[in-house]
Design a protein that fits this description.
It is built from six helices and two strands, in the order βαβααααα. The protein has about 160 residues and is mainly alpha-helical. The longest helix has 23 residues.
């Protein structure tokens, strides 16, 4: 695996640490070292955490079209959550009972949060364009105009709970 980031730090005089981003303890140690360096030298420190995106980019992306299943399986075996859980179990700090309790409690909280979120009114279509800039730039004005024209021509594309304003 090559790096396009970590190799740049030294050329700018920036302390650079490259770490396995899938190893929670390595990231923690790298972060503590970066903090130490930053405080000691009153200088920036770059951390490059090397990771692998095991999922798709989005719901419309099928990464199996451009990645071999063996590659995906190889990286799944190095899943950071599973690795950290295994380490906690090895230390005697975690077990299956705690895992099941946490999963049950977390599921209850998520279902409750989803229920609360579903009762909140959806933002209007306009808010997609008005929530960033105090004054909308011309390119967003054009995109807004095109979006509203499209929705008027194809009313079924917008979910019914999103107000068109």
């Amino acid at each position: 695996m090559t790096s396009a980031i970590a190799c740049r730090g030294p050329s700018y005089g920036i302390h650079t640490i490259r770490v396995d981003g899938g190893d929670v303890r390595a990231v923690m140690n790298a972060t503590m070292e970066a903090r130490r360096l930053a405080l000691a030298g009153s200088c920036p420190v770059l951390i490059e955490a090397m990771t692998y995106r095991s999922g798709h980019h989005s719901t419309s992306d099928d990464s199996t079209r451009y990645r071999a299943s063996s590659e995906i399986a190889s990286w799944r075996s190095r899943d950071p959550v599973a690795r950290y859980r295994a380490w906690l179990v090895l230390q005697g700090w975690w077990d299956e009972r705690q895992e099941q309790e946490l999963r049950k409690e977390s599921r209850t909280k998520v279902v409750s949060a989803l229920g609360a979120a579903s009762s909140v009114a959806m933002p209007t279509l306009s808010q997609m364009f008005t929530d960033v800039y105090a004054t909308m730039p011309p390119h967003l004005q054009e995109q807004r105009r095109e979006t509203f024209d499209f929705v008027r021509r194809h009313p079924g594309v917008l979910p019914p709970n999103i107000p068109v304003e």
